[in-house]
């Protein structure tokens, strides 16, 4: 019975973690509906399970001394998608940034790396 329970728990864990699989294809509609040439661009995308992300976000906000109102907003997060684009054309990246703004994606952070801004929407 203990073996059956362990197998069941392992299967449940794998089922819940399946969205963490990293894909080399874009996971946002902008790239599937556009006419850009993606031959040189490299993508890495995955969906972050909320049951893993929310506790870490809340803990980080508490450590930084954020207000409880900011921490309560974390409850309103419905989906977290992560995607990186490397070697994309400048025009494509500008259009992609405009797409994110028009579809109510919000920047979580902007990091300056090697003289370039890296946005985390």
**Strand portion, in percent?**
15-25%
Kindly report the spatial arrangement of strands forming the biggest sheet: 1-2
Structural shape: globular
Largest sheet: 2 strands, antiparallel
Category by helix and strand content: alpha+beta
Secondary structure layout plus pairing:
Layout: H1 2-17, H2 29-32, E1 42-48, H3 50-63, H4 68-73, E2 80-86, H5 90-102, E3 109-113, E4 116-120
Antiparallel strand pairs: 1-2, 3-4
Structure description:
The chain is of the alpha+beta class. Helix content is 44%, strand content 20%. The strands form 2 sheets. The chain has a two-stranded antiparallel ribbon with strand order 1-2. It has a two-stranded antiparallel ribbon with strand order 3-4. The longest helix has 16 residues.
Short description:
By secondary structure, the chain is of the alpha+beta class.
What key attributes describe this structure?
121 residues; alpha+beta; two-stranded antiparallel ribbon; two-stranded antiparallel sheet; 5 helices; globular
């Amino acid at each position: 019975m203990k073996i059956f329970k362990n197998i069941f728990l392992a299967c449940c864990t794998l089922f819940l973690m399946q969205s963490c699989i990293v894909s080399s294809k874009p996971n946002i509609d902008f790239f599937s509906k556009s006419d850009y040439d993606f031959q040189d661009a490299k993508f890495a995308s995955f969906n972050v399970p909320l049951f893993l992300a929310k506790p870490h976000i809340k803990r980080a906000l508490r450590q930084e001394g954020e207000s409880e109102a900011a921490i309560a907003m974390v409850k309103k997060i419905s989906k977290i998608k992560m995607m990186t684009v490397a070697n994309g054309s400048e025009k494509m990246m500008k259009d992609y940034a405009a797409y994110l703004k028009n579809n109510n994606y919000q920047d979580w952070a902007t990091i300056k790396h090697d003289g370039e801004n890296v946005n985390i929407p």
